[in-house]
Every structure is written in C-alpha cells, then in structure tokens.
Design goal:
The protein is an alpha+beta fold and about 500 residues long. Helix content is about 35%, strand content about 30%.
C-alpha cells in the first residue's frame, strides 16, 4: 500500500489534508464546504462522544434535542448573539419547489410558497433553547436545568478544511439555567475542567485553561472559559469553550423564576460545547509522516493481528491462534481486529494499519507459533519486540496504557518547550516567525492594542491563563502598564 504523504516539514497543511483523506477519516462532499465523515473517522468520533456523554451524565446533565430551524425574530432577540453570527447564517425563505416550465425536467422555487417568517438554520442553539426554557422554568424548584444536546449546526464558512472548519459540523452543546450567579459561574468552570480532563485523559492532548478576552468572547456571553492546545506546527487550536451567559438570554427571552420568597428573578445561564474540530486536533497533535497516530483510549481498533502465511494449512493454524488471542483481548475490553483477508499481502496490511494509526500490531507466522512468540510493534515509536505467547495479552494491555502516557508526555514536552516569554514587540515577532508556539507577553488590556497586534502579525490572544501570576509589567506593544502575561499565538 503506497501512502505518498507529503512530509509535515514540507507543507503541514497539505500533509494534514492528505492524511485525513488517505486514512479514511473524511472527504469533501458534493455540497460546498461540507464533509462526509467516513466509517473509520466516525468510529473515532463515536468514542469521543461516548466518553464525553458519560462525563456529562456523571455531572448531572441530561440529553434532549431541539429544532434545527430558528425563526428569525427569535434569533434576533439576543442582539449580541445575533450580530455575532449574522454573517455565517444560512436562511430558509421558501418551503416548496415546482416544475420550471421554461426548462423541462428542472425545478424552481415556488414564488407562492414564501415563508411568512424566514427561518435561520441554527449556527448555535441558544435562541431556540432559551425560548423553550421560558415554559420550563416557573419556580426555584425547577432549577438548576442541566441540558445537553448532540446535534449538527451550520455556519457558512468561506474557507473550509476537513474537521477544522466546515459549513456543517457535528457537536454537543450544553445549555444550563441556574438560580444564582455563583452557581452559573461554577457550572461554566466545571465544564471547562470536564473538557480539559477529556482532552488530556483520552485525547492525550495537554491543554491550557484560561479566559478569552472581550474580543474573543462568545457573542452574548459575559465570560468565556476555554482550553487551548498546541499543534505540531506551532499553531494553537481552541479545543473547547464554556460560556457564562449572565442573565443576557434570560432577559432576552423573559425566563424568570419565583425564588423562595416568592419574588420573580431572571435565571442565570451557561452554554458550552466541543465539536468534530477535536478530530482535527487529534490528527495534528500526534500523527507523523507515516500516517495517523491514535491514542489507545480513542482508537477504534487498539490491536490488529496480521497473519503471515504461504499455505492454506499455515493460515488455518495461525487463525486458530489468532482467534484465541482475539477472545483473550476482548475479555479485557481491548478492541482487536484479526485481519484475515486473503486478498492482501502482509506488507500491504502493515502499511494500511500504520496509516490508520492502530496503536499495536501483532504479527503471527509459522515460526512464531513454532517458537511460542509474537512480534509486537508499537505505532507511536515504530519499534518492535518479540514477546512470549503466554505473556502477550498482559504485555499488550500494559503497553496500551504506556502508549497513552507516552503520547501525552511527548505532546506536553513539545507544548512546554514552545511557550516563550518575551518582553518586547521585536522579540514577539521574532519568536512568532521562527520558533512559533505560545508567546507569553504583557498586554495592556485594551481591545485597541489586541487588534493592532492581530493586524500586524495575525497572532491573537488565545487566553488569559487561569493560573497566571499577577505581576506588574509593560505591554510589549504600547508600553502601557500591565498586570500580567497573556498567551498569544497564530491559531486555527
């Protein structure tokens, strides 16, 4: 099997695009800016979804589903949110087609089927959900309301890239309502920590927790919490956000409750989400010039067994051993595939599973059976070991845990060596162009300075780290007083 992947160092963007397609994760569809997520790619997303869903339910949330369409007047109710998403909205204006009499066999919009009110295809669901919450919340006894939905959304992006930015994408969006400001802030922070735990424990991606600046904040939020990751090309990627909405949506949709004293108050809200963009983060954080490298905790296939044989008799003997091995792995909850295709040679299979990032490969041939051993290969390091048949299952089980840790530590080491403190704008530009990564620098806190730096360098403030040290300094651009460092980077 020929991979023919562009080298990362030659063209990182091209390498990424080729890998997503050749590893059978996704492909562009016949609809501009939209993608087809293929079975192997969707299997990874399903594992992400399952783990996140479990974590949401463990923190008291329930799943529901809300409509894809939002009446335009409803969408406009919260002005900042509507304004923030206006340029990305797809709009439904008619509800019927009819035959075009001037072009036989073609259809046209029926001018008599114009909607009384245009419908927005949801770019996010705050409007439709908060209009519903108005009917669900009457008393403090109805709170907190902890709802999540798994859905698709549409944002009419002009420049698209598989998983990272598409016109339609899959995500989850949590929407909660609370009796007090403190409870809502606690919820926003809690979900940021859930996302960080997922990214680090399952994706093996180290993240920095922080707050967005006012410019980068979600439209309609009082505060946006985020987790930021660093890709292998030194660019940052926003891996998840959690928004403290204050009472903005409650006031826009008149969501009130009677408190314990019988007085009417507006509820406090949050919303939080991650999307199929995480698939892009997974690919870009760990993979190499040979293909995908998947952390075992999210790999659809954790172990692949490849038989090496010449005769039908050898294949039958190897199959018996492989089937026993498969059963042993399954008992331990390890996902395993015995690649018993007779239409492809071992070399092709090795290359295919390497490209698809299966963490561990076991080769079994007649000599292995004779010697009572298996050849075990790690995808992350491309190293091989010969292990006794009797201890193989236990060894591989431990190896999967080790690979998960090693991938995280490797990504952490890269991230930590690519956080650079600078004290001047010249230093800032030099690091940005040559070393890349996160740049820790003093900022005067003004939107004006933030925008000027972005215009000149294309770098944005990724976050104000939650663990930052308060220290007096001078803004690298304006020279004005600063109370602490923020993290800048070029980003996806």
């Amino acid at each position: 099997m020929s991979k023919n992947l562009t080298k990362r160092e030659e063209d990182y963007s091209k390498w990424y695009n080729e890998l997503v397609v050749k590893a059978d994760l996704a492909e562009n569809s016949g609809v501009r800016g939209c993608m087809v997520i293929k079975p192997y790619g969707y299997a990874i997303w399903e594992k992400m979804q399952a783990e996140l869903d479990r974590m949401f339910k463990e923190t008291g949330h329930s799943n529901a589903y809300f409509p894809l369409f939002v009446p335009k007047s409803m969408f406009e109710a919260e002005e900042k949110n509507a304004e923030g998403f206006a340029k990305e909205c797809a709009i439904v204006t008619h509800y019927r087609l009819k035959n075009d009499e001037t072009r036989p066999g073609k259809l046209m919009v029926d001018p008599n089927a114009k909607l009384e009110e245009e419908l927005i295809v949801r770019p996010t669901s705050e409007a439709i959900i908060w209009s519903t919450y108005k009917n669900w919340v009457q008393s403090y006894r109805d709170l907190p309301l902890l709802i999540n939905q798994w859905a698709n959304v549409v944002r009419w992006e002009m420049r698209t890239r598989l998983f990272l930015r598409t016109a339609e994408f899959l995500w989850q969006e949590g929407h909660t309502a609370h009796a007090t400001k403190a409870e809502a802030i606690e919820e926003s922070e809690k979900m940021m920590h859930v996302y960080a735990d997922f990214a680090e424990s399952f994706m093996a991606i180290p993240v920095i927790k922080g707050l967005k600046t006012e410019t980068e904040r979600f439209a309609g939020a009082d505060e946006t919490y985020c987790i930021e990751a660093l890709m292998q090309d030194g660019k940052a990627l926003q891996a998840g956000t959690s928004h403290f909405l204050g009472q903005n949506f409650a006031k826009a949709f008149d969501v009130k409750f009677a408190n314990q004293d019988g007085k009417q108050e507006y509820v406090w809200g949050t919303s939080w989400g991650v999307s199929t963009r995480l698939m892009g983060a997974l690919v870009m954080t760990h993979s190499d010039d040979n293909g995908l490298v998947l952390p075992p905790n999210l790999a659809p296939i954790q172990v692949v067994i490849v038989p090496i044989f010449r005769t039908d008799e050898e294949f039958d003997i190897i199959s018996t051993v492989a089937n026993d091995l498969t059963a042993s792995f399954k008992k331990l909850g390890v996902s395993v595939k015995f690649d018993n295709r007779t239409t492809q040679k071992p070399g092709f299979k090795f290359a295919e599973w390497e490209l698809k990032g299966v963490p561990v490969r076991i080769a079994v041939g007649p000599k292995d059976i004779e010697n009572g051993t298996f050849e075990i290969a790690r995808r992350d390091t491309l190293s091989k070991e010969v292990i006794s048949k009797d201890g193989a299952v236990e060894y591989v089980s431990g190896l999967l845990q080790q690979i998960q840790k090693d991938l995280f530590n490797r990504a952490l080491d890269y991230r930590d060596t690519h956080i650079t403190e600078v004290n001047s704008f010249e230093e800032f530009k030099e690091v940005l162009e040559n070393k890349t990564g996160f740049i820790s620098a003093h900022w005067d806190g003004t939107t004006e300075t933030e925008e000027k730096i972005k215009d000149l360098t294309k770098a944005t403030i990724r976050c104000i780290p939650l663990d930052r040290i308060e220290e007096e300094g001078k803004c690298i651009f304006s020279g004005a007083k600063s109370t602490g460092r923020v993290l800048f980077a070029k980003a996806y």
